[in-house]
Amino acid sequence: SANIGALASPTPGAPNPGPPPTVTVTTIVVNLIGITDTFWRYNDNGLDLGASWRGASYGDESWPLGVGLFGFETTPAVYPFPFNTPLTAPNQPGGRKTVYFRTHFQWTNDADFVVYATNYLDDGAVYYLNGVEVDRIRIDGDVAYNTDAINQTSEGQPEVRVLTQGN
Asked: Is 117 in contact with 135 (CB distance < 8 Å)?
């Protein structure tokens, strides 16, 4: 169109509103997991946990609780949030290439809902929902405990992903 207008709210997966009265868009955003919520469990013991840790019924009660951001950074000023749970970098003594993260939340999986994940990653991740892979960032091919990620070139920038079954 020759007319350009600003939208009051994003319309992911839905049509953009046209001139009145064509379309009314209602977007409701529910924050399931905040960046500083304390209910993330993590495992950085250096052991290959295979595939069992991905399942919804896996017992992660012995894993420590942490608050985002997780990690270690020599230039933390590039991130908009502080590193609240330190993890040793893989190239440092005691550092791990793979760290496992888990959290629990309820989602009805209704057709009108979409789950978005905003991430700050260095370098890659694979996401599972109830044991099924739903997304990955900078990890190619078959995934194993020691799979390398592709280097993150724009570190400290948010990456928004849509997490859906069968992604």
From this structure: yes
- Are the C-beta atoms of 146 and 98 separated by less than 8 Å? yes
Q: How far is CA 79 from the centre of its chain?
A: 15
* Strand (E) or helix (H) holding 160: strand 159-163
DSSP 8-64: SS--TTSPPP-STTS---------SS-TT-S-EEEE-SS---TTGGGSTT---TTSP
Residues β-bridged to residue 85: 70
The pLDDT tens digits for 135-160 are 999 999 999 988 988 888 888 889 99
| Structural tokens at position 63 | 């894993």
Indicate the pTM of the whole model: 0.77
With residues binned 3-state (H G I as helix, E B as strand, rest as coil), the percentages for the chain, rounded to 5, are 5, 20, 75
Cα separation of 161 and 138, whole Å? Answer: 13
